[in-house]
Write a structure and sequence with these properties.
This protein is mainly beta. It is built from 1 helix and 16 strands. The strands form 2 sheets. Strands 1-2-3-7-6-5 form a 6-stranded antiparallel beta barrel. A 6-stranded antiparallel β-barrel has the order 9-10-11-16-13-12. The longest helix is centred in the middle third of the chain and has 8 residues.
Length: 285
């Protein structure tokens, strides 16, 4: 995983924690598929104390709804959720630095709770804020990023926008891993980047934005650092037949269209809604 940079019990395993930010990927020649792409910037992204994230909405979210912040399950302040563990509606007062389009600090927003968090099947956290979307737009001039309700497509040009590093990584969706296994955790249908997205520690939780639509299609979470096989910091791909593939230096994200059917009125996470496939806490059907 692109480990949190500070304050985590797995600090010794941090990927890229001591590395200085590299030259922005924006200096590379754009791929042909990017020529007509919309300009993606930092507006709506956030910096956590140890990770990246973004203020997000689903298509049905209303201006007066409490806003949501998307990040990784492994970025939660309580440490990594255990395999099979799902956290819902847990009080939190975590703060986030909200960025404007150029990457400047627009202000601070604060959570009221962890609405959802897990590292089972996916690596995702959703914080509910004390501010509404209307509050954030009125005070800071920042609109939330919209989650795409459809599964992302192979070959699409994407931008991984890290609020922690204030850096944009540009590449394409290379394909999908049926299962992605890293240490004790297994994730389903993960997005695999083309090699240009060389994300580092602190980029965990960054929104993966489709350049053509400007919508969030995934959340950045991990990469194979040194060629290891299915170990911490070295995820492996496992296909339908159990065959394992290791791709050293390749990075991954978890799809976010899963979230959309699970958000009900008032932006509340409702795991019982029709079409919701997010993992549920033990004992909840």
């Amino acid at each position: 995983m692109k480990k949190p940079l500070v304050g985590a019990c797995f600090a010794a395993l941090i990927l890229g924690a001591t590395a200085a930010p590299a030259t922005a990927v924006g200096n590379e020649p754009p791929a042909q598929s990017e020529v007509k792409a919309k300009a993606v910037n930092f507006a709506g992204t956030v910096a956590l104390s140890n990770c990246s994230g973004s203020v997000v909405r689903v298509p049905s979210s209303q201006p007066g709804d409490p806003a949501l912040v998307l990040s990784n399950g492994h970025c939660l302040e309580g440490g990594f959720p255990a395999p099979g563990q799902v956290i819902v509606n847990k009080a939190s007062s975590r703060s986030f630095t909200l960025l404007n389009a150029s990457g400047g600090n627009a202000g601070t927003v604060r959570a009221s709770k962890i609405a959802y968090g897990t590292m089972t099947d996916t690596d995702m956290s959703l914080y509910q804020l004390t501010s509404t979307y209307r509050d954030i737009e009125s005070r800071y001039g920042i609109k939330a990023l919209e989650l795409n309700a459809a599964r992302p497509e192979q070959g699409r040009a994407i931008t991984v926008a890290s609020g922690y590093w204030k850096r944009l990584y540009k590449c394409n969706i290379d394909g999908f891993a049926y299962r992605l296994k890293e240490g004790s955790w297994t994730w389903k249908d993960s997005v695999r980047y083309t090699p240009a997205c060389q994300t580092i520690g602190g980029t965990s939780g960054s929104p993966v934005i489709d350049d053509a639509t400007g919508k969030v299609v995934a959340v950045n979470n991990t990469g194979n650092e040194s060629g290891g096989r299915c170990t911490d910091n070295n995820p492996c791909e496992v296909d339908e037949n159990g065959r394992v593939t290791v791709r050293e230096g390749i990075n991954y994200a978890q799809q976010t269209y899963w979230i959309v059917p699970c958000v009900g009125a008032g932006n509340k996470i409702d795991l019982s809604r029709a079409g919701c496939q997010l993992p549920k806490p033990a004992g909840v059907k």
